[in-house]
Amino acid sequence: MFAKFWRKRTHQPASIVLHFTKYLSLKVKLNRNSGKLKICLSYINFKDMPAIKHFDHTTEALLDLLRSTKEGKTQLPDFQRPWVWNDEQIRSILASISLSYPVGVVMMLQTGNPDVRFEARPIEGAILSKPTEPERMILDGQQRLTSLFQALLSPKPVITKDARGKEIKRWYYINITKALAPNVERQDAIVSLPEDKIIRNFSSEILADYSTLEAEYKNDLFPVTQIFDYSNWMHNYNEFWDFQKEKIKLFSQFTLEIIKPFEQYLVPVILLRKETPREAVCQVFEKVNTGGVSLTVFELLTATFAADKFQLRQDWAIREKQLKKFPILGNIYSTDFLQAVTLGATYERGASIGCTRKDILDLKLEEYKKWAEKVTQGFEKAAILLHTQKIFSARDLPYQSQVTALAAIFAVLGDHSDTHLIREKLVRWYWCGVFGELYSSAIEGRIAKDLRQVVKWIESSDSEPDTITDANFAPNRLVRLYTRRSAAYKGLSALLLRDEGCDFFTGVEIDTLKYFDESIDIHHIFPRSWCEKNGIKPENYDSAVNKTPLSSRTNKIIGGNAPSVYLSCLQDKAGISKERMDEILRSHVIDPIVLRVDNFEAFFQARQKALVNRIEKAMGKSLVLDSHPLEDVDKSEYEEE
């Protein structure tokens, strides 16, 4: 019950308060008029809470908390997102506080740690007369505090959004009569007025005008900007009503039941001490920011570098634009780039090479500046190398993370990498990583190890890196490759392009067609419909052994026909001789003899063996070809494309 109540009234997930529920004193009252339950949080007793390292717990008066944001003592770290709450959410939190309902715990970070320096900015709407060093920064609670500050303390209307996401400017009022009515939901008593305080219909006709103080008094509309200094407004209100006893009594009741809860409201605050390391700050923020977009290490480092007047976001934007000129780097992100930079920096330090979150957060600005350009060139060299292997786009990449490793290797090697021998070594290492499927887990450790071992192998011809010695592609794995989600599946497709596979219809090499944006995809050699009619099992005909890169035009001609039929059709339509067609088939490691007589089993076994030979050549090592009858295919790994 409490969890449901918490989510509704605090706009926070229940998990945030679960740790504190045993320290909350709750009162449940039944409203006799409406029959509804009223749940009140009377106090939070932090004295009995167990000690937590790096944390302090306290409560703070709402007014004091908001004043600290107005004065700049409490600010936002640069990595915080903009304020985004809409009109309904603002009305809801005002209603919650007027009822003394909890609105969630606010989490702060104490400033003063030289290793945790973030560029700070005031919350939206707060205007500082001069630059002010904050005493603490808001990690969780930005939306709530900004909404309350703008509604309660700002002399300007709140810039928010309506239910459709359109920007609007609003003043907030409490309807005194409705707020005190026992059968009216409190949020319905919170009134949102446009900037000019005039309500109009769709034809711009004036329906109500509250733009004067007299209109406020007449309609019992109390501006929430007066909540913490209401005496003058109260006097003018009573004077407007000629000090009628009913109105004096009404406002006295309003003061007791509505205004006092605002004045006495205590906000639970968790303060991370200044000794808290950056990595912990990042992790804590991610845990509490479950309702927003996850914080990345890039944003945290951006805020850190901003303290030294370096705009990491702008620098990355320039480099990202430069790198994404290469289609193969279309999915590279800021974190990939920072990983490669960190690898270079840790390699140079001569200590433990790494690219974990902690390693990235330990990156110094001087190190970033030194390695950023080298890494940019490293990614460009990686893109060129992979282009020679007929991997043209990010969609075709077996592993994005292996590109990061390759870029770091190029960055460390520098111009020393621009030789045929070294590039041949890198190509072999790359294919061992792909077909060994070694970048599918423990990625950060694999990247760091490869940087150290590959560079040493290249520079001193020392022992081969583990990615080469550990790589093993079981031939039976080939039979169980069904979709392009598999790294080995993508790698196999690239090998067929690299080794000059030609289109069945045009006779042009597939990689040339793909480069010029022809519609190239992986298609069945024995068509699916033919296989189904002839009793071939799906786990066999949908295997990569029965697929190859072809143009969409060729695939349409193939249709659902038997190979013996569509090969004759292709030869006639394209004017290709039987001998030339056989050459094209061999470029796809297809045995023309068994294909032309529609012998699926013989085709399958012959092509499986031929593809394994191609993979062995790419990896530079022999694989053991176990016997593998078609009927023994492991169906548990089969998933139809």
Characterization of this structure:
The protein is α+β, with helices and mostly antiparallel strands and 641 residues long. The chain has 29 helices and 16 strands. The strands form five sheets. The chain has a six-stranded mixed beta sheet with strand order 3-14-5-7-4-6. Strands 8, 9, 10 and 13 form a four-stranded antiparallel beta sheet that branches. A hairpin with a 5-residue loop joins strand 11 and strand 12 (206-209). Helix 15 (365-388) crosses helix 16 and helix 16 (400-413) packs parallel to helix 18 (443-460). The longest helix is centred in the middle third of the chain and has 24 residues, at 365-388. The protein is elongated, with a radius of gyration of 34 Å. It starts with a helix and ends in a 22-residue tail after the last helix. Mean pLDDT is 84; it is low at 5-52 and 627-641.
Annotate the secondary structure layout.
Elements: H1 2-10, H2 15-18, E1 24-30, E2 37-44, E3 55-61, H3 62-70, E4 74-77, H4 87-98, E5 106-110, E6 120-121, E7 136-140, H5 142-152, E8 158-161, E9 167-175, H6 176-180, E10 190-194, E11 198-200, E12 206-209, H7 213-218, E13 221-223, H8 231-240, H9 245-264, E14 266-272, H10 278-288, H11 297-306, H12 312-323, H13 334-349, H14 357-361, H15 365-388, H16 400-413, H17 420-435, H18 443-460, H19 466-469, H20 475-479, H21 487-498, H22 510-515, E15 520-524, H23 528-533, H24 538-541, E16 547-551, H25 552-558, H26 563-574, H27 578-587, H28 592-596, H29 600-619
Parallel strand pairs: 4-7, 5-14
Antiparallel strand pairs: 1-2, 3-14, 4-6, 5-7, 8-9, 9-10, 9-13, 11-12, 15-16
